[in-house]
Amino acid sequence: MTAPTRNCGLTLAADETTRLAETFRLLGDTTRLSILLCCLAGPRAVGEISDLLGQSQSLVSHHLRLLRAARLVRGERRARQVFYSLSDRHVSDMLHDMAHHIAEERAETAALTAEGEVK
């Protein structure tokens, strides 16, 4: 059992730290991350996500089940289909923030490369 995280900028109970680590582990899979990115634009049916990612519907459904269990997506039944969307703004904000973080890193690398070429 892990001790609570204290005085680290954010106080979490041990079980919360474990759940957070599990959430990041889930996001470490490129298919699951791609599913979340697909849902940034709004609710999408499993078939649409499957087509966009070029993955089977059964694989996408499996990943959606894991994401739903982690409360990262939610499903809404409309007639015979279930449409999935991000569970809340926290998930959306985190994805946007991390995408911006990667873009900043890419821009810094490009600037350093260009600077090295000039010298």
Automatic annotation (TrEMBL):
<dbReference type="InterPro" id="IPR036388">
    <property type="entry name" value="WH-like_DNA-bd_sf"/>
</dbReference>
<dbReference type="Pfam" id="PF01022">
    <property type="entry name" value="HTH_5"/>
</dbReference>
<dbReference type="InterPro" id="IPR051011">
    <property type="entry name" value="Metal_resp_trans_reg"/>
</dbReference>
<dbReference type="GO" id="GO:0003677">
    <property type="term" value="F:DNA binding"/>
</dbReference>
<dbReference type="InterPro" id="IPR001845">
    <property type="entry name" value="HTH_ArsR_DNA-bd_dom"/>
</dbReference>
<keyword id="KW-0614">Plasmid</keyword>
<keyword id="KW-0804">Transcription</keyword>
<protein>
    <submittedName>
        <fullName>Transcriptional regulator, ArsR family</fullName>
    </submittedName>
</protein>
<dbReference type="GO" id="GO:0003700">
    <property type="term" value="F:DNA-binding transcription factor activity"/>
</dbReference>
<keyword id="KW-0805">Transcription regulation</keyword>
<keyword id="KW-0238">DNA-binding</keyword>
<dbReference type="InterPro" id="IPR036390">
    <property type="entry name" value="WH_DNA-bd_sf"/>
</dbReference>
<feature type="domain" description="HTH arsR-type">
    <location>
        <begin position="12"/>
        <end position="106"/>
    </location>
</feature>
<dbReference type="InterPro" id="IPR011991">
    <property type="entry name" value="ArsR-like_HTH"/>
</dbReference>
